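The pair is quoted verbatim below.
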Amino acid sequence: MQALRVPFDHRTDSAALRHAVHDRLVSRQAGEVVDDTLLVITELVQNVIQHTGDGGELTLSRSADVLIEVYDHSRDLPHLLRPDPRRLGGRGMLVIDAVSDDWGSRLTANGKVVWARLPVRSAAS
């Protein structure tokens, strides 16, 4: 799969981003990995929209695994928060940590990129 790049802003509906990648994934991967990929995309995009009020770019590529990268202009790196029943949010990175093989973030010249890797399993397996 060639890399898919989808810009988004604060008005973007995450469902539109999920639909943009769904068909590209479903023919090549087991349903569970597709679902996990869509979940990670939703969490990362919503984090950008919620915490920056701006937009960014989603990049999805596949080689030995699925690599999801979300670029934005903020230099604030994400971190895991302990679950707190009094807090309505703050669990997105815990979800990403649970479903991905690995995740991280790095600063760029114009902000940051947050990425997650998910294993590739063929639809036949």
The domain at 4-119 is CATH 3.30.565.10 (Heat Shock Protein 90). Helices lie at 14-26, 31-52, 92-99.
